[in-house]
Amino acid sequence: MTSPQPEIDSRIARAARHWHLTLGDRLAGGTRSAVHAATDDQGRDLVVKVPEARADQAAVVAAEAAALRAWGRTGAAVTFVDATADALLLIRSRPGTYAPWEPALPLDELVGLAAELLGRLWSSEPGSYGFDRLADRYRADERIAREDAAYERRHETNLIAGRPVLSGCLLPVRRPFG
């Protein structure tokens, strides 16, 4: 299988040309997108975000752009600048540090902070974009989950190091292998 990196690099370069940006380093932390530091001719500290290549890529970018526009006045989301069918341009947030796995705040304070941020996001007006309704999204996600479960049931006898696996988790050995 070939690496998607040349394709990602090409899309990042295309976005930089479109917005007349100077690209900086790739930023750590993106799990489903390539994220690069950038500056424009006004000297703004920006981020170019290019999601993974997929068939519905333009729809994914459009939905994220619409959500960021809707959340723009809440103070609970990054600042949206512009989008193409292939990329998002955002104001860079600093310091951009990861949330620690074991945060210093007590759990009840973290839950309170998350609830306050989610309250701001959920109370914003969605604008004119036709976001998926939860009822519609649930049906599609449930169908996929059921297909995945059926596949795993059919293939649960795969072996790793002589032990049966289900969804990448080692199961206890029930009988000797050899």
3D architecture notes:
The protein has helices at residues 5-19, 57-71, 107-123, 134-154; strands spanning 22-26, 33-39, 45-51, 80-83, 88-91, 159-160, 163-166, 169-170. The chain contains 4 helices and 8 strands; from the N terminus they run αβββαββααβββ. The chain has a 5-stranded antiparallel β-sheet with strand order 1-2-3-5-4, sandwiched between helices. Strands 6-7-8 form a 3-stranded antiparallel β-sheet, with no helix packed on it. It has 2 domains: 5-103 and 115-123, Phosphorylase Kinase, domain 1 (2-Layer Sandwich), CATH 3.30.200; 134-170.
**Structural class of the helices, strands and pairings?**
alpha+beta
Question: What do we call the CATH topology of the largest domain?
Answer: Phosphorylase Kinase, domain 1
> In sequence order, what are the helices and strands, one letter per element?
HEEEHEEHHEEE
Q: Provide the CATH top-level class of the largest domain.
A: Alpha Beta
Low-confidence stretches: 170-178
Give the terminus-to-terminus CA distance. Answer: 32 Å
How much of the polypeptide forms β-strand, as a percent range?
15-25%
CATH superfamily of the largest domain: Phosphorylase Kinase, domain 1
DSSP strand count: 8
The major beta sheet can be summarized as: 5 strands, antiparallel
Top keywords for this entry?
2 domains; 20% strand; 8 strands; alpha+beta; 178 residues; globular; five-stranded antiparallel sheet; Phosphorylase Kinase, domain 1; three-stranded antiparallel sheet; 38% helix
